[in-house]
Amino acid sequence: MILLPCPNCGPRDEGEFTYGGPQRQLPSLDGQSGTDDWLKALFHPQNPRGPMVELWYHASGCEAWIEVTRDTGTHEIIDVATNRLRDDKQ
Amino acid sequence: MTRLPKGGLINRDTRLDFTFNGRPMTGHPGDTLASALLANGQHLVARSIKYHRPRGILSNGLEEPCAMVTVTDQTGNTPNLKATEVMLRGGLHVTSQNNWPSVTHDAGSALQLGGRMLAAGFYYKTFKWPRDGWHKRYAGIIRRLAGHGQIDPSADNALYDKRHRHCDILVIGSGAAGLSAAQTAAHAGATTILIEQDHVLGGSLLFSRNQIAGELAADWANDAVEALQDLSNVTVMSRTLAFGQYDHGQILAVESMPADSNARAILWKIRARRILLASGATERPIVFPGNDRPGIMLGGAVRSYIRRFSVAPGTRAVVAVADPDEGEDTFAALKEAGIDVRAVLPPGAAITGTSGRLHLRSVGWRDPGGKRHRTACDLLCVSAGWMPNAHLFAQMETGLQFDGTTQSLLPPDTSGPLRPIGGARGILNTADCLTDGKAAAHQALAELEMHKHLNLPRPAATPAAPGFDSGTGKAFVDLQNDVTRDDVALAMREGYKDIELVKRYTTLGMGTDQGKTSWTNGVLEIATQSGRDPAEIGHTTYRPPYSPVTIGALIGTETGDEMVPIRHTPFHRAFERMGCVFQTSGDWLYARYFPRDDETMQDAVIRECNAVRNGLGCVDMSTLGKIDVQGPDALEFLSRLYCNNISTLKPGHVRYALMLREDGYVFDDGTVAQLGDDHFSVTATTANSAFVWRHMTKFAQVDWPELDVTLTDISDHWASLAIAGPHARDLLLALAPDFDCSRDGFPFARLREGFLGNDLPVRVVSVSFSGEPCFEINTPAGFAETLLERVTKHGAGWDITAYGLEALDMLRIEKGHLSIGTEIDGRRTADDLGLGAMVSQKKDFIGRTLLQRPALQASEREQLVGLTPEDGSSPIPHGAVLSDHPISGDGRACGCGHLTAAIHSPALGHPIALGFLTNGRVRTGDVLWAQSPVSGQSVRVRVGPVCAYDPKGERLHG
Amino acid sequence: MAERLTPVPATDAKGFLPGPLGLRLDETALSVFALQAPPDTLDSLVAFGQTKPWPDAVLLRLWPDRIWACGTPPEGAFRVTDISHGHTHLQLRGVEALHFLDLYTRADLFAAPVRAAKTIRTRLNHYDALLWWTNTRDVHVLVARSLAQSFCDHLGALAQRHNPADPSLTPRPVAPDAPDRRG
Q1: For residues B154 and B364, what is the distance between their CA atoms, to the nearest angstrom?
Q2: Residues in CB range of B555: below 8 A, 6 or more apart
C-alpha cells in the first residue's frame, strides 16, 4: 500500500482513499462541446511511465478529492493539491 | 545421545517428549526440532524430491533445503516444515516425507537408477505416448513419487489476526549490526521496532567466540536486548519474520505465537520512516560430487549446534571452510564438543567425492599438491563463503550486483527507505557490523532530522577467501529441487542460457527454500560453464514472501461471519422477531420474505404480492442511498447531473430522475425531491449508493468548485418503510399525520414533512415501485421500530402484510419498472430503457454530448420489451437468450437479445418476462424463441408491452 | 411541542467485549449535526484536524468544509443538517482502549499530531471510524449506523485474539524520557 500525503490530513495509507482516475479537464456544460472534446477528456489521458496527475478521494479521512502527481514507475509522490489549495495559490 | 554435558541456550531442567517416525525422543526448551533430532542421534531426516536421496540437516536456519518434515500436534498436521525452523514443544509427532515405506528403506530411491533419464526438464521430453497417457497414467504416478508432504484436509480452527504498527526506525534482525542500530536509534529518541525471526535475539552472536565490550558476544547480546526492552520507545518482537518490503516503507511480518496464545499467528503491517535491514548473511555450500549426504553441514551451523544447542553433530569431522578465521573457529568448536577432527582442508584443496548411503562415511579429497586422500568421517563442515540476505531490499529495488571481491550478490547504495546493514551488505566481521549498524542508524536519524549528521564511515564488505575446487560427478547445486551441475549444463546446452530460463528449465531456486543456499552457486555455475563474468549473469526477481507464510495469517479475521462487514437496516431486529428470512445482497442483509406458519418461500411470496395488490403491504426501503443537497446552486448542480428536466420542481414535489455517465449511458435512477428553495433530497439505488456519492462529490469539488452547493450523506439517518396497496392512503390517515393527506392534498409525486401522532417525525413521499398506491414513510432510523409498530397496529384492520425483496422484485417486474444490474446494466441508453422522452433537449448535462454518438442513437439497438409465453402458460427460463431460430444441433443460435427478468406473475396468473431485444419496440406481436443454454429449456414467447400489469396506471392514478 | 421519542439503539453493545482484555464497549445516544460553511468560517470556530469542547457539545473539525457538532450545535452562518440517526456513538473504555484500536487503524493514533489533537477520522479494518478522546482509556467512536452492529461484533472478534498479558498493547508514552508505564 502506498502512502498518500493528503494536504489536509498528512500522510495516510492508500486504503483510506478511493482511486479516481487520471485528472481530467471536462468541457463546460454550455452546449458547445463536441464529441471529440469529451472523448479526449475522458478516454485519452496521458499514460506515461513517469509523473502523472491523478485523482484520489480521501473517503476514510477528510473526504476531499485530491490531485496527486505520482511517478507511475517508482510510486514517488511528487506533488499533491486540492482544488481549494489551487484556488488559494492563484 | 549426542547432547553435550553442559552449556547451550537450552533449559535442561525441563524435558520435552516428541516422536520421530514413531520413535520416542526427548529434547529441551530452546531446542529446534533439528537440534533435538541431532541430540537424539537422528541424522537421516528426509528423502529428496526427485531422486529420493537420503538427506539430513544441512543448516540451522530458514535456508534449510533438505530437512523437511511433517509436524503433528493436537491441532492437526502441517507438512513441509523445516526442522530447523520449528521450536521444539512437548507432544509433537514428527514424520519424514516423500518416502515409502520408511525414510531408511525407501522404494523411491530406485529412481536414482533413472539418473540421466530424469535430468532437468525430462517431463518436457518424455511421457508423450500414448497421447492421453500423461493425464491417465503418468501424472498420477509422478505426483505420488515426487513432492513433499501431505496436506491436512481438516478445517483450520486456529485464530489469526492482522495488526498495524508505526515507527520511526524499524530494525530487521538482531545480530551485531541490528542490535547496534537499534541501540543508536533508541537512544536518540526515535520510536524503534526491533524484529527478529528467531525465538532468541542475537543472530550469529549466539555461537560466536568473540568478545564485545569485555564480555562474550552472546552475553553482550542478551544484555543489549534487556536494555532495549526496558526503553519505552522500543518494541522488541521475536518469533517475527519480516517477509516482504512494500511501498513507502511498509514491511509485512508474521509473528508466530506461543502455543498457549489465543491466536496462532499475527500478520504485522509495519510502516516505518526508515528500515535498517540487518538480516545477516547465509552460508554458501560447496558444490562437489556427493555433496548432499546426511552429515554434511554448513560450518556456521556446526558451531551453532555445538555452542547454542549443546549438541555434537558428529563424532569424526573434516573441516572444509574457506575463510581461515572461521575454519579456526569451527575447529575450536569441534574440540569444545570433544569431536575428533580428522582433517582440515587447506585453501586450494578439492573435494572429489563422499561415501555413505544413509549417513556420511568418508570424504575423498585432493590437497593443493595433488595428493589424494580419503578420510573416514561422519561430519563434514563446509563453507564456500557467505551470501548477504538482501532479499527484502531486492524486492523493491532494481537488483543486486555480483561483486567479484566478495564473490556474492551485493545490494548497491540506495536512498530508499530500506537500507541493508552488516551482513546483509556483505560485512562479516563482528566489530565492523557493530560500527555499520551505528553509522547507518545515525544516517537515518539525520535524514529524519532527529539528530545532526555525523557522517560516520561505513565499513567495506568483507572480501571472500579463495574456495575449494571440486571434481566431476553428480554434484548438487540446488539440494531441495535435486538440481545438479549437469542439469545446469544440460539447460545451457539446449539453449536455455539466460538465467531466467535456466531457473525455469531446471527449477533451480524454485523450491520452498527459494534457493537460499543455491542461488549464488547457480550464478557461479552458469558463469563458469558459459565462460562469462558472474556480474553479467544477473539474477532472477526476488518476490515476497522471504520464507513461507501461513495463509491463515494473511486472512486474519476475514473468514466466516467476519469475512466482510454486514450492513443492517433499522428494521432488522424487528424483522428478526417477525420470523423474517434474510438474504445478503451486496453489503446488506435484506428481508427476503416473511413466512407464516410452515409455508414455502414460493407460497409466502405469492401471498405477499397478493396482499400488496389487493390490500396493504409494507416493505423496508431503507437501503437506498440518500443525499441532502443544499445551497444557492443546488438546483444548477443537480440539473447538470440528471438528464431530465428538474427545474420545474417546486418545494414538496418529487420527480423520478435519471443520471447518465459521462459517456451517455444510464448510470443510476432515483428520485429528486425539493424540500425548500435551495434544499433538495435525492435518492440513489442501493447498489450505486457509494458510487453516486463519489460521483457527486467529485463534480462538486473537482469539476465545478465555483458552485455553492453542500452535500450531506443521509443514507443511514433515515429509515424508510413503504406502505403499498389500495388501502395505503387509509393507513396513512390512521397514522394521524399533522398534514393533509387527502387525495387532493397529497397527490402522487409529492413530499410532506411533519409528525405522525404528534411525536413521530416523518418525511412521506408518494412514489410507487409496485404500481399500487404507495407512501414511503421516512423517519429517523432510531424511530424505525416505533413506526413499524404503529403501521402494524393501525394496518391490522386491512391485514397489513410485511413483504421482502422477493415480492418487491415480482411486483416491479409486473410493472416493467427498472432495477440496477438487470435492466440498468451500464450498457443501456435512456431510450433503450424506454425512457428516451426523459432526456431533456433544453439543457446541457453530464452525458448529453456523448449520447449523441451515432452508435448510441442507432435504431438497431437492443430495446427493453415485455414477453409472455405463446401458449399462455409455459414457464420462461431465467437468463434465456432470445432468438428468431431454435438452437441448432451443435448448440449454436443467433441471439437477438436476452432476458433480464422472468417470473410467474401472481397478479396475472401466467409467466411474464422482461428483456432486451434488437429493435424490440417495432417487433410487438412477434413470436421468438427464448432459450436457456444452461438449463436446455426452450419456449416460444411473444413480444409485448414492458408493463404487463395495469399498463395505464389506473391503480395509481385512476 | 411533540413529545420526544426514545430512539432504539443500533447495536447490542453494552458491557465487556469477549476475550481477556477487559475492554467495555457501550452505545449511547448522541445528537450529531453537520455544520457546513466555507473553510475560513469554520477555521474561526475550530481549526482543521482538531476537536473543541463547546457548551453542550463537542465540535469535530475533520473535514475542510464541515464540522460535526455532537450535542447541541452552536449558532452561526452554517448549513445545518441533522445526521444524528445516521451514526452510532460507541464508547470503548479500558486501560488500553486507544492502544487496542491503534493496532487496527490504518493511521497511527500515537503520531505526534494525532496525540495532540486527540481526534481523527480513519479506517479501522473495513470500517470508517471517527475517534475522539480526552484520555486514552476512554475513546469515543462514531460509525455509520448500518455498519454499527457489524463493527461491534468485529471488535469482539479482534479482542478474542489477544492474550491477557498482551505485550503488543504496551502503552507507548508521549516522550522517550517519559516515565515508563510498564512494570
Answers
A1: 48
A2: B160
The answer to whether A35 contacts B703, with C-beta atoms less than 8 Å apart, is no
Question: How far apart are the C-alpha atoms of A69 and A50, rounded to whole Å?
Answer: 10
In B110-216, which ranges are continuous DSSP H helix? Answer: 122-125, 133, 139-145, 176-187
Contacts of B768 (CB under 8 A, 6+ apart): B724, B748, B774, B956
Cell numbers standing for residue A62: 477528510
CA distances from B349 to B300, B302, B640, B802 (A): 20, 21, 84, 90
Residue among A2, A55, A75 whose CB faces B702 most closely: A55
- Report B:162-191 residues touching C (Cβ under 8 A): 162-166, 186, 189, 191
CA atoms within 13 A on the CB side of B98: 28
Phi, psi of B801 (to 5 degrees): -120, 120
Closest to B341 in 3D by CA, of B384, B302, B390, B285: B302
Q: Which residues, at least 6 apart from B297, have a Cβ–Cβ distance to it below 8 Å? A: B56, B57, B58, B59, B305, B313, B379, B380, B381, B382
Contacts of B602 (CB under 8 A, 6+ apart): none
Q: Which residues of chain B have pLDDT under 70?
A: 1, 114-116, 146-147, 471, 889-893, 958
- The pLDDT value recorded for residue C168 is 63
Residue B154 is classified by DSSP as: S
Put residue C5 in one of left, alpha, beta given phi > 0 → left and psi -120 to 50 → alpha. beta
- Alpha-carbon gap: A30 to the closest alpha carbon of chain B (Å): 6
Span C117-126, average pLDDT: 98
Cβ of residue C174 closer than 8 Å to a chain B Cβ: no
Give the model's pLDDT for residue C128.
98
Distance CA A77, CA A70 (A): 5
What superfamily would CATH give domain B859-957?
A: Aminomethyltransferase beta-barrel domains (2.40.30.110)
**Residue among B186, B573, B782 minimizing CB distance to C85:** B782
- Measure the CA–CA gap between C166 and B676, rounded to whole angstroms: 56
B650: alpha, beta or left, given left = phi > 0 and alpha = psi -120 to 50?
beta
Beta bridge pairs of residue B215: B212
In angstroms, the CA B226 to CA B488 distance is: 48
Asked whether residue C80 carries a pLDDT value surpassing 70, the answer given is: yes
Stretch C132-157: mean pLDDT, rounded? 97
Q: Does the pLDDT value for residue C29 go beyond 80?
A: yes
Average pLDDT, chain C: 90
A36 close to C (CB below 8 A):
no
Q: Which residue type does B396 have?
A: M
Q: How confident is the model at residue C183 (pLDDT cuts 50, 70, 90)?
A: very low
CA B38-B44-B50 angle, to 5 degrees, is: 140
In the prediction, which pLDDT does B122 show?
78
Contact B622, C144 (CB under 8 A): no
For residue B817, what is its C-alpha cell?
419498472
**pLDDT for the residue numbered C3:** 57
Give the CATH number of domain B158-282+386-464+542-556; options: 3.50.50.60, 3.10.450.50, 3.40.47.10, 3.40.50.980: 3.50.50.60
Question: Could you tell me if residue C28 is inside a domain?
Answer: yes
The CATH number corresponding to A3-23+44-89 among 3.30.1330.10, 3.40.50.2020, 3.30.2270.10, 3.40.50.720 equals 3.30.2270.10
Q: Which residues contact B200 (CB under 8 A, 6 or more apart)?
A: B9, B30, B206, B238
Three cell numbers written together for B947 = 408493463
CB contact under 8 A, C106 and A15: yes
The answer to whether the Cα torsion of C33, C85, B737, B672 is positive or negative is positive
